[in-house]
Amino acid sequence: MKERKISRAVFGLFTAAFLCCASAFVSLAEADAAKIQATIQSCLINSDKNSVTVQADSNADMTGTDGVLYLVELQPYQNNLAGRTDYAASSAPGNKVTFTFPLNRNTAQDRLYSKFVIAVWDGTKYIEISKPHYITNPEMVAANIQPFNDPLTKKGLNIQLNMLGDAFELGVKHVATNISFHQILGQGIDYQFDGKTYHFDKNAINSYDETISALSGKGMTVTAIVLNGWNDAAPNLIYPGTKKNANAFYYMFNPATQEGLDQTRAIASFLAERYNGSNPNHGKISNWIIGNEINNQQWNYMGPKDIHSYVQAYQDAFRIFYTAIKSTSANDRVYYSLDYNWNNEIDHKLKYGGKAIVDTFNSIANEQGQMDWGLSYHPYPCPMIEPEFWDDDQTGLITNDFNSPVINFKNLTTLTDYMAQDPLKSPAGHVRHIILTEQGFTATSHTRGNVAQIQAAAYAYSYYMVDSNPYIDAYILSRQVDAPLEVRSGLSFGLWECAMDRGDDIVATKRRKIWQVFRDIDKKKYTLESSEFAKSIIGIGKWSDVIPNFRWRALEN
């Protein structure tokens, strides 16, 4: 750390005669400095993995300053330079400016998670002249550079751990599991991170080890959904000022205090390291979803906020996870998730449109350091209590344009068309990774009773849509077995029926038609035969008539 020192000898030259002019001098200096603008273009770890270079554009008018540009480090929770005299690097002014400084990886001064601003010195204090910018290539220091585990098909399922044999018979390639972020602190496992020791709950971690290793050990690509519930014993994990809310299932992560930042990044780093695939007894997580359906604060609560404040707080947390994950396993993928309300159910305080979340997240990232983020989406039927989605436009909530209130399977290409726009592409210029991680079709209807045939037809239609769309990587169906709690609400999503006399315990009883369709849908030899029954239900002659670029078109009669 370097420090901008003010010479006592210089101050000794000032006399009482000049003090009356001090306030005017400072105001003039501030006005001059305010004219100076800088934009950080890149903030990258160098190939030596030990240093960082920042490149910026700036004007060269340094009137009212000491003639030097300073790069100042800030923690994610810091929003100004009040009282600061230290700096990470300095440079002579110019239209193109470069700063280089040490990364200090794995020390108490680790800068991997920091943000940086350019400032000028007006004689008494720093004045910021750029927006903050983060390091955007944490993968440069990753020990694990194995390629992403990309399965042969997109077929996925939320499964019961005690039914792994059935999942294997079904040919499941993608699977999701939840991680309760708020239950990891505890005792039994000590973890060293940036010079501090953290203590984690051994029983909780062992349970995750068992689940994740069982899934990845079968060759499945594992997606982890990291959820932050309320835990009175871990208050620093909750965003400051947040009150417990009976309507909230999960809460905003906390990067906004020193304690919250320290604990959050230590847990994130621990999870990334433990599930990097190096230990088969721990397993491998390849996809990480931070929070759930963030356009609805019921799943990510912090209290009423305008969308920019809300998304800024979320992105600050997302970036911690992203940095921890990518700096461990360079090719893991990190996502945020949305429900199907694209421009619907919006109050601008607790509920926001998915489209607005995407736009705001991307805009903030463009300014503060773009990441290779991905989108996890949940295109349930509308309404969820009926399995047909092909007539969902009758609700008046679905159109084939970017202003559609809802985007689900009926207009799924609207989502991928939106994400394929140039301003939303990844830093490498590609359409971002999109995965469908929670959606299902009920086999029971409030008005018609058993509609298992329609459920199976809906799955076949939706799978073909996804399989033929080049911009969607995975489709994880919910779920292998009905959940009694959902069944009592009229939602029978399972490939299997469940026992309804075991409370909320999930116990499989009988396969549905969808089981066989799911098993065969991605097999060239059987796929069209397995889905033939669905055509009359949907009212079509050929799949290629309703699915653009239908993958199996050459096999159709």
From TrEMBL:
The keyword Glycosyltransferase does not apply. It comes from the Bacteria. The keyword Ribonucleoprotein does not apply. Keywords: Signal. InterPro entries: DUF5722, GH. Residues 1-24 form the signal peptide. Pfam families: DUF5722. Residues 148-546 form the DUF5722 domain. This is DUF5722 domain-containing protein. It comes from Lacrimispora saccharolytica (strain ATCC 35040 / DSM 2544 / NRCC 2533 / WM1).
